[in-house]
Each structure stands twice: as C-alpha cells, then as structure tokens.
Write a structure and sequence with these properties.
186 residues; quercetin 2,3-dioxygenase activity; Quercetin 2,3-dioxygenase; seven-stranded antiparallel beta sheet; oxidoreductase; three-stranded antiparallel beta sheet; QDO-like
Length: 186
Amino acid sequence: MTIEYATPHRARSFLPPDPTRPYFVEKGLGDRAHLFTDLVTVYCGGEQTENTFNFFTVEGPKGDLIPAHVHPETYEVFYVTDGAVRLFVEDLEGEQHEKLLTSGDFGFVPKNCAHAYRVERDHSRIVGVAAGPSGTYERFFENLGTPTEALGLPAEPYIPAPADFGRAQREFDVRFLPGFEWRTAD
C-alpha cells in the first residue's frame, strides 16, 4: 500500500496531512532524506499529530560524531533497534554523560541539553521520537539534508553548506554548538 500526498516540503509524501485519519506506512516508505552518511525516514510528524510529536528512524554506517546541538523546546528519545550508537549528553548542570546503546537500549535527552551521537557499528538503526511545546522538527532532516526516494544510505555523504546550518537553526528547534567539546571518556 502506498499513499501519496504533497506537503510544503516535498512534492510527494507517504504521510497524510490530516491528523484525524489513521494511516499505515510500509517498512521504509516514510518520507526519506539523506543527511551526512545517514538515511532518515519520517513515519509521523507534526502534520499528523497537530505538532505534538514525531516518529522517525535514522540508519547509518559506523562513522563520525554528529555535531553537538541542543533543542531549546524539544525532548528527544533514542531507541536503538539494530547495531550500536554512542549517545553523548550534557545535562543542565554541565555534567556530561556518555553511553553506548545497543539493540533494545533507550536514551532520553531533556530539552535544552547539549547532545550528539556516533554510530559505532555498520547497519545501526535508531528510532527517534521528539516532542515539545513549540512543535516538532522532523522536517529539519530534509531541509538540511536532501530528500530522497532511495531506500538505502547515500552513495556519498551529503554535507550541507555552512549557510544551510544557519537557515535550519532559524526554522527549526535546533541550535548547533560549534567547537563544543565532550569531556567524557571517549
């Protein structure tokens, strides 16, 4: 089953814009984008939940640390279904935490806490959910990255231009922290 809808962000989407209608999405057929070395698939977003939460997956190869950032108004969860992901979080008191999450492990990041992650094993997958009072940010991925119809990882990393990071910060609940250093035992 495929459902196709246009959204303000893409000409074709598998997600209906009406929050009052149930829907189903086959494995991998949500709205997809490539960002860095990863494939992000959105299954449910602000358009479907009246901006209360989103649900997405991130799949990627073993790689570099995703840039440190905060979401001033958004809570975020990380649930690893495959592989291993190292989650870094700095709490509001400035204490840094690091945890290797493997299949079945869960991590929670409160709003306004600096965080980053690194995929530690090829073929890793994170299920993410984000929620907060100011809406959701799932369209960040395709606005900073590039929308794709592909079901796999990008053939080449997609690295956004520096100006795109600034634009994404203004439009979505994310603030990047250039030069941020993790003091945890890495």
